[in-house]
Write a structure and sequence with these properties.
It comes from Corynebacterium nasicanis. Keywords: DNA-binding, Transcription, Transcription regulation. With 171 residues, the protein is mostly helical. It has a domain at 74-167: Orthogonal Bundle (Tetracycline Repressor, domain 2). Helix content is 72%, strand content 0%. It has 9 helices and no strands. α2 (27-34) crosses α3 and α5 runs parallel beside α8. The longest helix has 24 residues, at 48-71. 23% of the residues are buried.
C-alpha cells in the first residue's frame, strides 16, 4: 500500500526531531527532507502547532498499535492485568529519542497532552491502584533510562528487569 503524503511528512518529521531536536524542525527542513515543497507541507499542516499536534497524534497512534499487537487485542477487550503487561513490555524497551522529546514537549500544551492522554486512559492503571501504578513507574524508568543515565542498560539486564516487573504485576 502506498504511503500518503501526510504519513510521509509525519515520518520525516519524526526522523528530523530524532536527529536535530524540535529546534531543528522547520517547514523548510521538513520539505527538503521529505522531498516536498514547503507549500505541500503547509497544505497538510497550516501551522507549526498543527504539525507538532500531528506528530504527537502520529506517535501516540503508533504506540497504541504496538500495545495492541503485544497484547493481542484492543484495550477495551483486555483485563487491567493484560493491559499493564503490554505497557511494561513496550516501555521496557529504550525510548526512541523523538518519542521522548515529544513527550517532554507535550507537557507545555494541553492539546498535545490530550493526544497521549487518550492512549493512557485506555492502557494505564489509575494512580490509586498503587501496586499496578508502581509497576507502571518502573516501566517509565526503563523506557527513559538510557537517555538519562551515563551508560545504557545491558540488553540482558534490561530483559531481567522487564521480567521482574512483569512478575510483580498484581492480578
Amino acid at each position: 500500500m502506498r504511503r500518503s503524503k501526510r504519513d510521509l511528512i509525519l515520518d520525516t518529521a519524526v526522523e528530523l526531531v530524532g536527529r536535530h531536536g524540535l529546534e531543528g524542525l522547520s517547514f523548510e527542513s521538513l520539505a527538503t527532507a521529505a522531498g516536498l515543497s514547503k507549500s505541500g507541507i503547509i497544505y497538510h499542516f497550516p501551522s507549526r502547532h498543527d504539525l507538532l499536534l500531528g506528530i504527537h497524534r502520529h506517535l501516540a497512534t503508533t504506540w497504541e498499535r504496538e500495545l495492541e499487537e503485544l497484547a493481542g487485542a484492543p484495550a477495551a477487550e483486555l483485563s487491567p492485568t493484560e493491559r499493564l503487561r503490554a505497557v511494561v513490555t513496550s516501555m521496557g524497551r529504550t525510548a526512541d529519542l523523538p518519542e521522548l522529546l515529544m513527550h517532554l514537549d507535550a507537557r507545555h500544551d494541553p492539546v498535545y497532552q490530550a493526544a497521549w492522554a487518550e492512549v493512557d486512559r485506555r492502557w494505564m492503571p489509575e494512580p490509586d491502584s498503587t501496586g499496578a501504578y508502581l509497576i507502571q513507574l518502573i516501566a517509565y524508568g526503563l523506557w527513559a533510562h538510557d537517555h538519562l543515565h551515563h551508560a545504557p542498560l545491558d540488553p540482558r539486564a534490561r530483559e531481567k528487569l522487564i521480567a521482574a516487573a512483569l512478575e510483580q504485576i498484581p492480578t
